[in-house]
Predict the 3D structure of the following.
Amino acid sequence: DARVTQTPRHKVTEMGQEVTMRCQPILGHNTVFWYRQTMMQGLELLAYFRNRAPLDDSGMPKDRFSAEMPDATLATLKIQPSEPRDSAVYFCASGLVGNEQYFGPGTRLTVT
Amino acid sequence: AQSVAQPEDQVNVAEGNPLTVKCTYSVSGNPYLFWYVQYPNRGLQFLLKYITGDNLVKGSYGFEAEFNKSQTSFHLKKPSALVSDSALYFCAVRDTGATDSWGKLQFGAGTQVVVTP
């Protein structure tokens, strides 16, 4: 049963520290998405990739967030420096273009 | 631009009664429509989709949804709700008429379903 995996599942860090979240998409999927979920804003799209190329990262604060896909089995989302307002659950999802997306379990980030 | 609306923040239903979660959408082309469910502290799980064909789509856990083009709706239904159906439900749409969609989905705000015993 193929699944999207994310690490770490939980992260507590202090303001100003770098945070790196990792995602392993389902093998064979050619799109990868990063979302952020908060009570106030709901589900927000941060970035997405097709065939490892970034297509849109307009949802990310550019000065502190960056997303990459160094290879087909790994997607990363970095925050540097982190701020308390970044506290949220971050989801990675993968899929085939135009079809349903499959979500990972999420990384719960707390920035103090 | 594509958009999706879930007009109800919460739906309350007694176990055994029919469950309906509403969704309406706006797109420039033909829609691809999806329903997801999220249980506490979990990621979103795919339930069902409409791409083309029969307007009534059947999905996981006994859920179904009906595509209504004239009303631009895609309501999620279950004939007999279970307490275990209590969760957050998201409708999503992809606009095939949008040249920059690239498979991107627009999600609704979510509807909390509470099924009481």
Notes: Chain B has a mean pLDDT of 92.
